[in-house]
Design goal:
With 305 residues, the chain is an alpha+beta fold. 35% of the residues lie in helices and 24% in strands. The protein folds into two domains: 193 residues, no CATH class; 75 residues, Immunoglobulin-like. The strands form four sheets. The chain has a five-stranded mixed sheet, with no helix packed on it. A four-stranded antiparallel sheet has the order 4-1-6-7. The chain has a four-stranded antiparallel sheet with strand order 3-2-5-8.
Length: 305
């Protein structure tokens, strides 16, 4: 089941929506939110991942919440009990867009529209449970517990792995893309911090790492890799972030934070994405959909804490 779920995420990531023929998509929901589709008199329950078009009408009940993302990338949070015309919500937003946000929305809802029932069902939380992670560790030799592939803005990267025996040292080795040994050290702990400047590592180049038992090199981990961004690429990322924030507009919300998290994830800036997800949950801790999105992110990025 776990392998099937991981494969589903990969397929969905590589197959975003082909066209944006909607005004809004539902990113998160709490309580009761209903919709009249295209003038239909019947009210139906809104679900996470549903698409809303211009002629639809939304009804938010007491103590309910709806997080919406516009096709342009702008976000709206509806908390007040009332009816909302999608056309009015659409008109209230600026028509300006960027080349970044619409494509990002397609990626998010290319996933979301196909797995909304999975993410909406709390019974499927067991897929992300700590127990499932611990069982997977027992079946391996040494398991990498930090992201297996990560791009960094900071000068440091923390590498973590599972404990294999009660006693014994580990050996960590870092190589370049030509498999040349760059760094090797025996350590007692199951974590080490690597500094780009101290090891004089090149920027914009991937480095690969692996851990083995010092007493038995055959007992080892899978291979992970990391890359430190150059100042030029960091400047490009920051420019895109500022552009996105300007287009999203208004104050920061949990929805806008999740959009930022997906942007960072798509650029393998895992630490920054993790921070945005956690801040989104702090702002809306009662939205189960956002918790599920964060759990799914941690599963994709191999964050096991």
């Amino acid at each position: 089941m776990r392998l099937l779920f991981i494969l589903l995420f990969i397929v969905l990531l590589l197959n975003p929506l082909q066209a944006q023929n909607y005004d809004f998509c539902v990113l998160g929901k709490v309580g009761t939110a209903l919709v009249q589709l295209n003038g239909n008199k019947d009210w139906t329950e809104l679900k996470t991942g549903d698409q809303l078009k211009r002629n639809d009408i939304i009804s938010i009940k007491d103590n309910s919440y709806l997080g919406l993302v516009h096709s342009s990338g702008k976000t709206i949070e509806l908390r007040q009990s009332s009816q909302y015309k999608v056309s009015k919500l659409d008109d209230d937003l600026s028509e300006s867009t960027t080349s970044i946000l619409p494509n990002l929305i397609e990626v998010i809802f290319g996933k979301k529209s196909n797995i909304k029932d999975i993410l909406e069902s709390r019974r499927n939380k067991k897929v992300f449970s700590k127990g499932a992670i611990e069982r997977s560790i027992e079946n391996e030799q040494i398991t990498i517990l930090s992201p297996k592939k990560i791009i960094l803005i900071a000068d440091d990267v923390a590498l973590l792995w599972s404990k294999f025996t009660a006693e014994g040292k580990y050996e960590i080795k870092i190589t370049d893309r030509f498999n040349k040994l760059i760094f090797s050290r025996a350590v007692d702990d199951t974590t080490i911090s690597i500094n780009q400047k101290e090891l004089n590592l090149d920027r914009d180049q991937y480095y690969f790492w692996r851990v083995n038992l010092l007493s038995n090199p055959e007992i080892r981990s899978d291979e992970g890799c990391f890359l430190f961004l150059s100042d030029k690429r960091i400047a490009e990322i920051k420019k895109n972030i500022e552009q996105m924030k300007k287009e999203i507009g208004g104050k920061e919300t949990s929805v806008s934070k999740i959009l930022m998290a997906f942007y960072y994830e798509n650029n393998l800036l895992v630490n920054e994405a993790d921070k945005e997800f956690r801040e989104a949950l702090n702002m809306s801790p009662d939205v189960a959909d956002y918790i599920d999105l964060y759990d799914a992110f941690k599963m994709r990025m191999n964050i096991r804490r």
